[in-house]
Fold this protein.
Amino acid sequence: MDTPWWKSAVVYQIYPRSFCDSNGDGVGDLAGVRSKLDHLERLGVDAVWLSPFFRSPMRDFGYDVSDYCDVDPLFGDLADFDALVADCHARGIRVVIDWVPNHSSDLHPWFQEARASRSAPKRDWYIWRDGTPDTPPNNWRSAFTRGPAWTWDEATEQWYLHLFLEEQPDLNWRNPQLVEAMHDTLRFWLDRGVDGFRMDVIHCIGKDPALPDVDAKLAPIPYCALNDHPSTHELLRGIRGVLESYPGERTSIGEVYLLDTDRVATYADPGELLLAFTFPPLYAAWTAPAWHDQIERAERAFGSRDAWPTWVLSNHDNPRHRTRYGSEARARAAAVLLLTLRGAPFLYAGEELGLEDAVIEKSRQVDPGGRDGCRAPIPWDGSQDHGWSGSEPWLPWPPERERRHAEQQWSEPDSILALYRALLAARRASSALRTGTWTALPAPEAVLFYKRESSDDARFVAINFSDEPQAISPPLALRVEISSGPSASGAAFRGRLSGDEALILAIDA
Ligand code: NOJ
């Protein structure tokens, strides 16, 4: 059987506000994305995932949706979206969009109707509890503010639940009409030709109806540990049913923000999500033992249930790995790792340029979760506005924009951009790298050495996590296919890795 596209695809995440501005308002937009498809095609990505571009008051920069079925005017309109999908498809690039099912904006007409009175027909589309204004119904804390996950509604004298900001009331997935309305929002975009959805904090949609207190110690990041309720799995089967009622292989990628790989993998059981983000590796230290452990955990958890792992180093919620790992040499080695593990890799726009987080002074910080640094705008060229339509972007630029912009890096054969492009091409050409097995091989403590193997193809990968040279003993004669460091491609491999160097090695025929 053919491998489904989403298993071997490299997905490129675009945070539309920060990608490219076409109309001079300083905020990226859909036409801006459309103007950069040459970059994506040349890089060789298989799919893009667009973070939210829906109508929103932008309290959480689009993760607070006030209309699931329209484009916010800041980003363009539905015609821009259709044109973007058509252009992507014409280039063989699939389009995955974000879907935010756990909560809406408080300005969504559903919530406006729901809060109008206790007997409003849509009251039960959100989660309300009786009480007194001084004591929230339980001890849940909301992400970002760490205050109570409840807000007292003066007019109707009840509390409503919000795992995130008070402007992001949680939807009640126990209400069948709400479920149907949310399924309709999927159908709206499926009808417009999208290839799938990235589903925001999907593990939170099913909640224990008793909404019990949690052990505060177990919930350092409240929404992580709180919500892992069996009803979510049933709801996921309903969602999968909607996707499967459409032709083609529409994918689902769930943000399952549980920092436990075994638990995450249960969301990719048959009939549920096709892919589930596994975030523990994103928080792992850059050492060979830490990564070895993360990989084995994912191999076990996903492999034992015939599910497919995912790999993420950076996204719009965390400091970029270039910043976390502290050097370009390590970011280059990390790119080799990300793109040679068994599973679906996700790139975050700008990592192919080796961008670091912007350092942003307090007066310019805008995100309630303090995530502005990784959302700095992408510099496209060497002009004064770096391709941003003459405008000052909504956030400050990342460091070294004069030499890290895309145009510059496309002209340099040794740029990190050139490395990413070579890695994507190598994956595309190798069934072992795309879908083969993963096996660890003996190596010194600072090195991760592994084999990827399919029925008719094999590759070896060696990653030196230290800045000192290291030696390994390859089991057979190998040659260097790609190096993140000084080794020349095509050269025979002599068992030596330079500091911070990562290699893809092919059998020397
Ligand atoms: C996860 C998203 O990635 C993040 O950006 C957002 O703030 C929360 N979910 C709430 O929607």
